[in-house]
Amino acid sequence: MSEKENTCVPEEFIAEVMEYPFLYDKRQPMFKDAKKKERIWNEIGKNFNHPGEEAKQYFKSLERKVWKDKKQREKATRSGAGATRKKETERD
User: Fold this and answer.
1) Where would I find the MADF domain in this sequence (predicted)?
2) Is residue 92 part of a domain?
């Protein structure tokens, strides 16, 4: 789904894909069923007026963006400083 032609709302598109966990979850038994996945991608693409292969690529790009954003947030919360020990003080 090219930028110019992309008329679908990402939330609606993702909701549609989430109905079929075997499209993205490798733990699902049907994940390896290429014919079924191709058929479902074609259906999803048809619902959003795009070919199935474009729908699949669009989902992959959204997925990469989410992971990249998550990684950047995690990196931003790290200080980079190692742990320090408190100095022991003499107590009288």
Assistant:
1) 12-92
2) no
DSSP class per residue in 6-42: --S-HHHHHHHHHT-GGGT-TTSGGGG-HHHHHHHHH
State pLDDT tens for residues 43-62. 999 999 999 999 999 999 99
Cα separation, 46 vs 40, whole angstroms: 10
In a domain, 78, yes or no: no
From CA 18, how far away is CA 64, in angstroms rounded?
Answer: 16
Q: How confident is the model at residue 29 (pLDDT cuts 50, 70, 90)?
A: very high
What would the two tokens of residue 21 be? 């966990």
For residue 73, what is the DSSP state?
H
Which range of residues forms the domain containing residue 58?
10-66
- Do 5 and 50 touch, CB atoms closer than 8 A? yes
With a cut of 90, say whether residue 26 has pLDDT above it: yes
**Structural domain count, the chain:** 1
